[in-house]
Structures are given as structure tokens and as C-alpha cells.
């Protein structure tokens, strides 16, 4: 310790000493500065938030809290205000306008200086006080130091009493020049009354020049706030002494953030769920990542709610996920904590789908669209959802992939936000020492734990990455692939890997208590059998199975009877099914589904969270012996859509699987070909597409899991393929409504009729007419189930014809409706019985047109030996034609309907009674029916005369438009013993009703002639009305012909006149 020795001038003698020197006065440096406060407003977050943690303790200036846990303040002289971000929160005072009023009065001790504020809208004032000098001199030694001055600021409303607006203010320090001090003070609401402010000096006035502490009331500044509420925005306003900082400080807040939607039965503070959930929500703050994710998806202001309807988010699956997140697990440091929490600030705009996936990864899940709903599936302990084995995957193949060695890790570096480091990023290192020792190197993966503020959670994430499964599987399935969803757990029974057949399909006849297997099971013992039920659910039961069993008894029985061909699996303690988690499903162009899945270890979760050692599950039990021969082969023909608009034939071959058979080598000898290798497959069946008709041979050689071949089996089969005729039309009927006829039938089952085939319809008036003698009506697509046809008397014949031109059985239906007679027959062309036209290979006899023989009478050496008719000498000519005597000319181009009536007999005279040795053995005395005989009418048309003919085309009963028509009958047979006799041949040309009309046509005095173009076929009926007639006037119509008519308007004296007009309608055909 040291002290100052102050000497004084003086004489005297001292022992050996001399006199002292004079002391220089000391002036302290100026310590007083003009005081300024910095006022800042901060947007904290979207609102509404729960609040600032610890209030002042949750406000940080350059990472230093405003208040310490013990209550001490690190930054004195501050002001703080905040709003949580509600819709209707009060505004935050922010100065918008100000007006300074000068005062300039020196403050005297205990003498108040008062000023009135008459503007009732003023919200605050700024009081400015100054001192010209603040110092005090020690008269004993001349030193100059600082001084002090105190004063009080008070306010008053109207005639009320005075009250302090703040604590007493004191200025302390030293300054040798004028220094100002400003103080911001809020005023109470005016209530329409004037307000007053007064300042009173509390320090006594200085009576000495040694003390300089005079103070002045310089001014009062009126302040008006900018009254902005900032709805739905959490904000904070801070005012601090600027001299405490060298620059504007970085301010941060520790908050409990946005209140999000949580279930109505959820206590966010205790993380408990009370009773059942009714599906409604409440708002509360929570760090449960499932509900944070849901709020981000559904909020219409800052989330995706404007684009995504909340009804499209699967909230019920999220409810289960949230409960799993809230469960307490060891934190790794002696305590317990929720399994997953999420605390993060999203401050920048991001890609929506990436953010959705980043957020869902917080609680170890994936999300996907399923059935129009956005669903999250968590990687958590769960039971299997579906099963697959070699019988219900394409080709029976499962393709396995292991993670590359450079992508398998033994060290994980997890970046997380450490609360002890002001939530700055820290890195948690997690290791698997046994893998480091095994591999002899470090393979590190780096990952950022989104929203993680727990070291224990970061550590669990690292362990989860290091214990993640390293195997994946892909396979293709048919319609079964639509059943599982991403995230579902599936059981895989792959006989190729297991070494035994532990899966297949059920046979028809299975019950809830007795399951019939498609082949003997490859292992025995007590275990679990799993079956896919009719509703798609997965049922399992404990059973005991004997060696090579073909059925399994289930007791107690299953809840319902599974469908035939339902997949099944069987697992025991010695051979378990593989478990995988589905990560992707994609639909192929051929109707199959490609499924990708990763291995799923149900023991991983306890290993990651509790450190429980993993237990290896046996998934193979390979038998190294040779397989036996396959069982009886079954052949099945079907048709399939090639995608080109045509059908093709498929030949499916299946067989019974022998013991120890894992794969099958397939060889085939197609019709007219040699043996060829096809493939090596794992399923006991194979399909041959684009199969041709003829004799097929198939050779199947079973092989063991090691490739050891068993005995081959060969089997043959005669395939019809596309040569099989279509089936008969079912339900053929004729519906007549208002003279409109419709033929209808049931859809044909054959695919080669629906694709590229047709339904052919014919008609005949002859009761004994056959398909070959009937006239074609129409041809419609094979997929059709009805066709509008002309309503005609007689019978309709219909048959299905496939894409190869092969026709099915003929179905007939009679027209029992009242068929209207042709109303406007323009022309009947009757060729029979005279048949005056030109015939080739046919002649007229007995009123019929008959096909002639190929021989000549002069060529017969022995006329007496002839048994048959002379006209049939040499057998039929196989073809014959008859051209109508003359074309039909209507004179003009008309719309008309053509019908025909053809009666003919087709027969075979290959057998005569005189040549029959055993008459009793004769099945028919009429001769064999002709095979492939046909008779068809053809037509060509012309619109002009002389004729310019169109090409010949098959005659179809229907509507035509032309002037001239020419017809030709063509017949053909396939054997010389087949004959055709035509007894009737005529064509009817019917005209539809026709109307000609005119309105407001002036009639001159010389009369009006109306001309029809084209003319009618018969004089039409004419109806007239006249306009502008005087009393006694009338119209006179004459010369009514097919070409037109003449009309006069006459007065009562019969004299023609003008000035009138007519309307007319002519109806005819």
C-alpha cells in the first residue's frame, strides 16, 4: 500500500536534511460523455411463439446474456419489450414523428420547471438536460475532479397528481465543456386530457466557484409512435446505452418457438397423450418433430398449406410416429430423454420437397404419396406387412446387392447444435471399434443432424448409421406389387438362398385350419406360417410341420379362409425368412412392379438405443444333394395383348417342384423345329409367348443350389394357338324401337376376337338359308356388343371372326317384329325367274339359275353309262357369276335404301342312292353339306350418265347415294361335287320421304312456276298458303307433276293479279 505524503513549505534545520519543493495540482481527465441509447427492433420468428426462455436470460448481446442466472444484469440501463406474434397483438412503440420544443431554463434546487403537452396523440417524450461544466476543485491541494447533479422527472394527467416517470436521474463524472443528456420517457394515454412534464433539481445549487454542477433543461421533444402491430410476427424492441458497445451488437434469442398444431389430447409439456384422439388439434409449443413436420405441411402462411390440403396428410399414422418420438430412451450419459426432438430455425427459402424430406429424416422416416395421401413411414420396430417368395415374383428371381466396401463406415461424425456452446455446431464422433480393428482403417461418414440439440440424439444417429444394414434386394412382381408401400416390412422366402423351399402358393380347397401347399415344404419342425389373406392383410400362426408335408394344419384356425394361389412362407428357429424394408416401388410398362428394399434387422433398435448385442438370424439351410425329377407337367393355352392392337398365343407350362430343386434348365422343341435352350429359372413354371400351333416338346432339368443336375423330364403337347375357333355368340337378340333394329349380344371372351377380330352379321329372307347363302349386312369390331341394322323380314345370322380370319359357330335370330313395307319403292329389279342377264358357268333351268358342269356332252364316250344329270357333266366349275340384265338408272342422284332378296340352295351330290352299298349306314340322304361354299351379291354405282362406274364392292343392305346401280352375283365352291342353285334374285330400291318448300315467294301476274331439282319420282302432295289476298282473291294451282307446279293469284272475277306471295310445301319421294 502506498500513500501520498504532502509537504509544506517551511524553514528549520534538520539533521542532514534540506528543504522540500512545491506540489503541482492534478486535474482528472474528463470522464463524462454525451449519453446515447441505441434502440433496435428485431423480428424473432413467425408467430405465435411460446416465449423467450428466462426472458432477459434468453436475450444475448454478442453471445453474452442480458441477465445472468443469479439475476445480475450484464448491460445496465436497458429497456426491453416484445410481442409473441399473435394476430391481434398490441403495437410495438417505434418513433415515427418527433417535434422538439426548446426550454433553455437553468434548473434550480427544488424549483420545478413545468411544460404542458396538449397534443393528445403524443406517445412519448425525450427530455434533454445539459451541463456547461461538471467539476469540483479541492481547495486544499488544487486538484480538479468530477462532480454530480441529480434531478427528478415527473408527469401529470390533467388536474391529477404528479408522479415520477422514472427513477431519479443522476449525472456523475467530469467534463469541462457543455455536455447534453437525453432521456426517453413513455407517457400514459391522454384520455383526451392535457399532460404535463416537470423537472426538479434535487442537488443543492453550488455556492462556490470550486463546484461547477449547474444544469439546464434544454428541450422536450414530442414523439409520435408508428403504430404497427406486425400480426403473426414475434418481435422484440431493445434500448441500451450505446457506450457499452464499440459497434452495434449481434443480438440473438433463446426461445420456445412457434406454437404448432398438436392433437387435442396431447400435453406438450409432459409429452403424454390422454385417452383416444378424436382427430382434432390444438396449438401448443412442442419440439416433437412429427408435429413440427405436420405444421410445416399444413400451415397456409409459412408452410405448404396453400398448396397441400391438410386432408391429404395421413395424420393418424403421424400420431403413432409422434408417440414413438416422445418415448424416453437413455441419453448415453446416465439420464433419459425423448427419442427424437427438433429445434431449428428456418430462415431462408428452400426447395419444398427437399425440406419435406430433410424434416421427415429428423424422426428417421421417409414420406411418399399413396392413395392420394402424403404418408410418413418411420424406421421403427414393426411387424411384417407382406411376403414374397419365388412363386410370386417375376422369374422367381431375387437380386441382392451389398454396399460397396468404400461406402461402409466404422466412424460417424455427426454435426449438431450444442446448447452449451450457444447452440453453435459441434461434432459428435461415434465409433465401432470392432470394425476399425477388423478393417484396419477408418471409414468415416459425415452427417448433419437436422434440428438436433441433444448430444444423446446425435450419438444415437451416429450409431444408427454405423449399424445400418448393408444389403439390398430388388425384384419384380405382378399385381401383388401394388400391396406393400414404401417403409413396409416384408418377409422374403428365397429358396435359392435358403437352401430349402420355405414358400409358395396355396392350392384351391385350403381352409382356415388346413392350408394346401403347391409343393412339398423343404423343411420340418415347429415355426410360424405366414399367409396373405383375401383382404391383403398378413396373418401368421404357430404350426408344426412334418418332413415333405404338402399341407399345414393351423390351430386355432385363421380368421378367414385365404384365397387360392395366396402366397405363404414358413420359418423356424433353424431357418428364418429374410426381412426387408421397402424403399421404392415403380410400375413398369408391362404391368409389373419393381420393388427395391433394404435389409431390416429388428434387433438393431435395441442395439442402437440400449447397447443390446445383436443376434444373428439363420437365413439358409443348404442341402448339397441332387434334386429328383420334376412331377407331371401341366400345359395351359391363353391369349395376351401384344400392345400392337393384336392378340398372340401363350403356352404356359408348370410342374411339381421336387426336393432340393432350386433352379430349372428349360429346353424346348417348337413345331417344325429342333431342340433349343431357353433359360434357367427358379420358378416351377414358364411361359412361351407368340406360341404357334402344332406339337411342342418341353424338357425340364432340375438343379440344386450348387448347380447339380437331376434327371430330365420330357413331355409333349399339341397346341391350337391362334387356330382355335371363337366361341358362339351368347344372348343374340333383336331389339326394335320405332322401326330401328339393333342386334345385341354378350361380349365375346376370346382376346383375338376383341383385338383385330370382328363380328360379322348377315341376313336372309329364306328360312333355310345358310351363312353362305345369306347376304352380308355389316361387320363391327370384335369388342362390340351391339350393332344397328336394317329392319328386314327373315332371319339374321351372326358369328365371331378372330384376327386370323377363323369364324366361330353361327347364331341365328328371327325378326318377329312388324317390318314396315317400303313406303316409297322407286324400283324393283327382279331377275328371277327368267334371269335375263349374262351368266358365266351357270345356266337357267326350271326357273332357277344353276351352276353348270365342267364337261361337254360331245366328250362323253358312253352316254348310256351316265348316271348323273347331263348338266353336271364333269363336276361343277367351282365358280360362277351372274350380271344383272341392265343397270338401274334413277335419272338423278338420289339418297335411297337398297335391299336384296336372294334364295339359293347349296348342296353336295357326291353320294347317290344307286351307288350306296349299305343304305342303313348312310347318315344323310341329302348329300354332304358343302364346305366353304359362298354366294355374294356385289354392287357398283355411278353418279352420271353415261355411267362412270365405281369399283365393285360387296353388297350390304343399307343406304346409298347414286344415280345408277349395277349388280353382280358371284358364287364359289371348293369341291367339284358342290353345286349352287339360285331360285330368287331381286333388289328393291326404296326412296326416303323428301320435302321441298319455299316461303314469301312473290307471284307475278303471269303466274309463278316452281321447279323441283331433282324431280320427284312420283307427283308429290302440294300444300300452299297465300299472303296479301284481298276479299274474294284465291290461288289457282295447275300442272302438278314430278317436275314442279304453276300457281296464279286471281281476284273474285278470276282475273290473274300480282302483289301477293305464297308459301309452299311439297312432300313425296
From TrEMBL:
Compositional bias segments (type: Gly residues): 8-21
Domain Tip attachment protein J: 348-499
InterPro entries: GpJ_HDII-ins2 (IPR055385), J_dom (IPR032876), Viral_Tip_Attach_Protein (IPR053171)
Residues covered by the Tip attachment protein J HDII-ins2 domain: 98-223
Top-level division of the source organism's lineage: Bacteria
Ranges for region Disordered: 1-32
Name this protein carries in UniProt: Uncharacterized protein
Species name: Pseudomonas fluorescens
Upper taxonomic lineage: Bacteria, Pseudomonadati, Pseudomonadota, Gammaproteobacteria, Pseudomonadales
Amino acid at each position: 500500500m502506498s500513500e501520498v505524503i504532502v509537504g509544506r513549505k517551511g524553514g528549520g534545520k534538520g539533521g542532514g536534511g534540506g528543504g522540500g519543493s512545491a506540489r503541482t495540482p492534478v486535474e482528472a481527465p474528463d470522464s463524462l460523455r454525451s449519453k446515447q441509447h441505441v434502440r433496435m427492433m428485431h423480428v424473432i420468428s413467425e408467430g405465435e411463439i411460446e416465449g423467450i426462455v428466462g426472458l432477459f436470460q434468453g436475450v444475448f448481446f454478442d453471445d453474452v446474456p442480458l441477465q445472468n442466472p443469479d439475476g445480475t444484469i450484464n448491460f445496465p440501463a436497458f429497456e426491453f419489450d416484445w410481442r409473441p406474434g399473435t394476430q391481434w397483438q398490441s403495437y410495438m412503440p417505434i418513433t415515427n414523428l418527433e417535434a422538439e420544443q426548446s426550454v433553455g431554463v437553468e434548473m434550480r434546487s427544488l424549483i420545478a420547471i413545468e411544460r404542458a403537452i396538449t397534443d393528445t396523440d403524443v406517445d412519448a417524450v425525450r427530455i434533454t438536460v445539459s451541463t456547461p461544466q461538471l467539476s469540483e476543485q479541492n481547495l486544499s491541494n488544487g486538484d480538479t475532479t468530477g462532480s454530480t447533479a441529480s434531478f427528478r422527472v415527473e408527469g401529470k394527467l390533467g388536474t391529477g397528481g404528479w408522479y415520477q416517470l422514472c427513477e431519479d436521474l443522476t449525472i456523475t463524472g467530469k467534463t469541462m465543456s457543455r455536455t447534453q443528456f437525453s432521456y426517453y420517457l413513455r407517457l400514459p394515454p391522454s384520455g383526451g386530457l392535457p399532460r404535463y412534464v416537470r423537472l426538479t433539481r434535487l442537488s443543492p445549487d453550488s455556492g462556490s466557484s470550486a463546484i461547477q454542477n449547474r444544469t439546464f433543461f434544454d428541450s422536450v421533444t414530442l414523439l409520435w409512435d408508428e403504430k404497427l402491430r406486425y400480426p403473426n410476427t414475434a418481435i422484440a424492441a431493445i434500448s441500451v446505452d450505446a457506450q457499452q458497445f464499440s459497434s452495434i451488437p449481434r443480438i440473438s434469442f433463446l426461445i420456445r418457438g412457434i406454437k404448432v398444431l398438436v392433437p387435442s389430447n396431447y400435453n406438450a409439456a409432459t409429452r403424454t397423450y390422454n385417452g383416444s384422439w378424436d382427430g382434432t388439434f390444438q396449438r401448443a409449443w412442442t419440439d416433437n418433430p412429427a408435429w413440427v413436420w405436420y405444421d410445416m405441411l399444413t400451415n397456409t402462411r409459412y408452410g405448404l398449406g396453400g398448396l397441400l390440403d391438410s386432408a391429404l396428410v395421413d395424420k393418424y399414422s403421424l400420431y403413432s410416429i409422434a408417440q414413438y418420438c416422445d418415448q424416453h430412451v437413455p441419453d448415453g450419459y446416465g439420464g433419459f430423454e425423448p427419442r427424437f426432438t427438433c429445434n431449428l430455425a428456418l430462415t431462408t427459402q428452400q426447395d419444398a420437397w427437399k425440406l419435406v424430406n430433410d424434416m421427415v429424416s429428423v424422426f428417421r422416416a421417409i414420406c411418399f404419396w399413396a392413395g392420394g395421401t402424403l404418408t410418413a413411414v418411420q424406421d421403427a420396430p414393426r411387424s411384417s406387412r407382406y411376403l414374397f417368395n419365388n412363386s410370386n415374383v417375376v422369374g422367381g428371381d431375387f437380386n441382392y446387392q451389398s454396399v460397396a466396401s468404400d461406402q461402409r463406415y466404422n466412424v460417424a461424425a455427426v454435426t449438431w447444435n450444442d446448447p452449451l456452446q450457444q447452440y453453435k455446431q459441434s461434432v459428435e464422433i461415434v465409433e465401432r471399434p470392432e470394425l476399425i480393428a477388423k478393417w484396419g482403417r477408418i471409414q468415416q461418414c459425415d452427417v448433419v443432424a437436422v434440428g438436433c440439440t441433444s448430444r444423446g440424439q446425435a450419438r444415437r444417429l451416429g450409431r444408427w448409421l454405423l449399424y445400418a444394414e448393408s444389403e439390398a434386394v430388388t425384384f419384380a412382381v405382378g399385381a401383388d406389387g401394388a400391396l406393400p408401400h414404401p417403409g413396409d416390412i416384408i418377409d422374403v422366402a428365397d429358396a435359392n438362398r435358403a437352401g430349402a423351399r420355405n414358400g409358395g402358393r396355396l392350392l384351391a380347397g385350403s381352409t382356415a385350419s388346413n392350408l394346401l401347399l403347391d409343393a412339398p415344404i423343404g423343411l420340418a419342425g415347429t415355426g410360424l406360417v405366414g399367409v396373405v389373406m383375401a383382404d391383403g392383410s398378413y396373418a401368421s400362426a404357430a404350426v408344426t410341420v412334418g418332413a415333405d408335408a404338402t399341407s399345414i394344419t393351423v390351430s386355432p384356425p385363421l380368421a378367414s379362409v385365404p384365397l387360392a394361389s395366396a402366397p405363404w412362407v414358413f420359418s423356424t428357429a433353424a431357418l428364418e425368412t429374410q426381412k426387408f424394408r421397402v424403399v421404392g416401388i415403380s410400375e413398369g410398362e408391362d404391368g409389373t412392379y419393381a420393388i427395391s428394399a433394404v435389409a431390416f434387422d429388428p434387433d438393431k433398435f435395441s442395439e442402437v438405443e440400449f447397447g443390446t448385442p445383436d443376434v444373428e438370424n439363420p437365413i439358409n439351410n443348404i442341402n448339397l444333394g441332387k434334386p429328383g425329377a420334376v412331377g407331371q407337367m401341366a400345359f395351359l393355352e391363353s391369349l395376351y395383348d401384344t400392345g400392337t392392337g393384336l392378340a398372340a398365343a401363350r403356352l404356359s407350362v408348370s410342374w411339381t417342384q421336387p426336393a432340393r430343386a432350386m433352379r430349372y434348365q428349360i429346353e424346348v422343341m417348337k413345331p417344325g423345329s429342333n431342340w433349343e435352350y431357353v433359360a434357367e429359372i427358379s420358378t416351377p413354371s414358364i411361359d412361351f409367348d407368340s406360341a404357334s400351333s402344332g406339337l411342342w416338346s418341353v424338357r425340364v432339368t432340375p438343379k440344386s443350389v450348387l448347380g447339380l443336375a437331376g434327371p430330365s423330364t420330357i413331355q409333349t403337347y399339341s397346341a391350337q394357338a391362334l387356330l382355335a375357333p371363337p366361341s358362339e355368340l351368347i344372348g343374340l337378340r333383336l331389339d326394335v324401337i320405332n322401326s330401328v333394329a339393333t342386334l345385341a349380344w354378350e361380349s365375346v371372351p376370346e382376346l383375338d376376337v376383341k383385338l383385330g377380330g370382328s363380328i360379322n352379321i348377315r341376313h336372309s329372307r329364306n328360312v333355310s338359308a345358310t351363312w353362305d347363302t345369306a347376304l352380308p349386312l355389316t361387320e363391327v369390331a370384335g369388342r362390340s356388343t351391339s350393332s344397328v341394322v336394317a329392319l328386314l323380314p327373315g332371319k339374321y345370322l351372326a358369328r365371331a371372326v378372330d384376327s386370323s380370319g377363323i369364324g366361330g359357330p353361327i347364331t341365328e335370330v328371327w325378326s318377329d317384329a312388324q317390318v314396315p313395307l317400303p313406303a316409297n319403292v322407286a324400283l324393283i329389279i327382279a331377275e328371277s325367274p327368267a334371269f335375263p342377264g349374262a351368266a358365266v358357268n351357270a345356266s337357267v333351268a326350271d326357273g332357277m339359275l344353276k351352276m353348270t358342269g365342267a364337261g361337254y356332252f360331245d366328250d362323253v364316250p358312253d352316254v348310256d353309262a351316265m348316271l348323273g344329270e347331263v348338266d353336271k357333266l364333269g363336276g361343277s366349275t367351282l365358280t360362277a357369276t351372274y350380271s344383272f340384265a341392265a343397270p338401274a338408272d334413277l335419272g338423278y342422284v338420289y339418297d335411297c335404301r337398297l335391299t336384296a332378296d336372294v334364295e339359293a340352295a347349296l348342296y353336295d351330290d357326291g353320294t347317290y342312292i344307286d351307288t350306296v352299298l349299305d343304305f342303313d349306314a348312310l347318315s344323310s340322304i341329302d348329300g354332304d353339306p358343302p364346305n366353304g361354299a359362298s354366294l355374294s351379291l356385289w354392287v357398283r354405282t355411278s353418279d352420271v350418265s353415261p355411267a362412270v362406274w365405281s369399283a365393285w364392292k360387296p353388297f350390304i343392305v343399307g343406304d346409298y347415294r347414286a344415280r345408277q346401280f349395277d349388280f353382280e352375283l358371284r358364287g364359289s365352291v371348293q369341291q367339284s361335287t358342290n353345286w349352287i342353285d339360285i331360285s330368287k334374285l331381286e333388289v328393291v330400291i326404296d326412296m326416303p320421304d323428301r320435302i321441298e318448300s319455299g316461303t314469301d315467294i312473290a307471284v307475278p301476274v303471269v303466274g309463278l312456276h316452281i321447279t323441283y331439282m331433282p324431280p320427284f319420282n312420283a307427283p308429290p302432295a302440294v300444300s300452299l298458303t297465300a299472303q296479301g289476298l284481298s276479299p274474294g282473291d284465291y290461288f289457282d294451282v295447275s300442272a302438278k307433276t314430278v317436275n314442279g307446279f304453276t300457281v296464279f293469284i286471281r281476284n273474285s272475277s278470276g282475273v290473274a293479279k300480282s302483289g301477293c306471295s305464297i308459301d309452299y310445301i311439297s312432300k313425296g319421294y
